[in-house]
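Before the break, one more example. Copy the sequence into your notebook; we will annotate it together after we see the structure.
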Amino acid sequence: MPLVTYSYDNGTFPSMPRTDAQTVLSYAKAELLTAIKDLPYQYGTQTNLYYGSYGAQWQGKLFNKLSAYSVLAHICAWQGNYAEAETYSAFIIDHASEINAKYTSIADLTSETGLFYSNTSVKGSRILGFNFAHNDNEATQSGHLEQLTLAYPLVQKSYPEIYISKDSLFSIFANFDDLRFGIMDTIKYSSYYVQNLNEEIPVFSKIKIIQDGSAKDNDFGVFGSSIVFTRLEDITLLRAEALCALNRSTEAVSYLNMIRTNRGLREVSFKKDFGNNRENLIAEIFEERRRELMGEGWRWYDLVRRQKLMKDNETFLQLINSGGIYWPVSEDIITANSQIEQNEFWK
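Here is what the structure looks like once it is written out:
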């Protein structure tokens, strides 16, 4: 799409060609770097409220200094600029206490009143998120992941529209010590990420904010979960990815281990577990991102970045190089603006 940086107050909007993706990303970076100079770590203190509220009440609602840095880190990783991605992610981790951001326990990650609940003290775990609180009349029946993933006994629906198959679950979570999906009490699978495992179709229930988080067996299917753009686990794994891309693999393993140990897994070493092979470590970092961030909207972007680093799938590389990783431009837009061309892959 065209990058429009000024308004047209006379009611006209001239036809403009689309802007190169790198130009758009560079513009976004420049705007963020300018804004960061004035952004605080928190809005409101005990002695100086912001619009009558403490800082914790604004967490996940307004951009602060670290949330801006988190977007910068992801933009740089998408560009392949891992030197800057590592610098920004390091800054976020080093200054996380400034916004009371912390690593999320498995219970808070999957609770009805945990990380994805809008009115919760756990929202301090978010670096950037957007609330849709039921108590603020923001909950909706559509537009939330739960609309597609939940089923009985959580909502009155026999089967979910989308789900993770049992074969996939056992493949993704190969280590049964994993608290997200593993073995409890030697005989029972943990149900933190899924329910109804004994049924034909399991229910992905990691995110399940029905109404205000207290509703059970709900007839109405009104959901109030927050969209969590990034949290400390995401940034820590992003830094591990960046360090690995910069050939600082031993350092990368230490950040990978921060997430593993929080989820019940043992620490790994670059030499013993990855044979001092950087590609093996990169693959495992992305697998850990898959396990930790499942259901949070990162998988496609992670697959693209992984392929740019690994270059081990010729078909996927062709998809990237031909622009097939992007949506096609709407034909209505092309009709209305003759200077807009269809993405090459979709012609």
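The radius of gyration is 22 Å. The mean pLDDT is 91. Try to locate both features in your own notes.
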